[in-house]
Amino acid sequence: MTGPQSFHHLSWPEPWTHPEFTIPSEERLALWKSQGWLKDGSRASVQLIKNLKWPWGFIIYRTVYTPESDELWSACLDKIEESIRLEIDIFGGEYTDQTPERILKDTFKNVVLEDRDRWESASVEQIRADFIAHLESIGSFVGDDAPRSTVCLVIDDACLQSIRNTFDEPESNRGSWAPTGTEDS
Length: 185
Description:
By secondary structure, the chain is mainly alpha-helical. The chain contains 7 helices and 3 strands; from the N terminus they run ααβααβααβα. The chain has a domain at 59-168. Helix content is 42%, strand content 6%. A 3-stranded parallel sheet has the order 2-1-3. The chain is globular and about 50 Å long. The model has no long low-confidence stretch (mean pLDDT 85).
């Protein structure tokens, strides 16, 4: 965990900052080690923290541009973020010290790529090619930085509708990505 670890995307209005990251990475690592939780290598949040660049998140491509999608888009992005935060809480729920989970939630920031002329109805092949080119343009490569360079999210109409269907789900169903209205076989 040494060297430059902060990521910035030009689509963000301001450079990313966080109080935990105002000190050099070596000092931050020493501070976290002194708190004890960093030694728990079996803990999912600690495994992520040891391998992330900051901030962490996904590259999200918007490929649907309809009046309905325009109305749902912000709520869709909020739902994705809410689901990620919920998963962090679920995996960290058994621990008294929630510091690594707090750090993960605080440092989560997606890159959202929206361009109707470029992405409307784009194919998986087009997205894949752009994803690889985008990573190369920022000095990265596929697999360099999980999850940002490992996988991208593509929001097409089917995905948007699936996420929309989760808006009114009871709390007991949250955290499940199975489409609503289907039964397990």
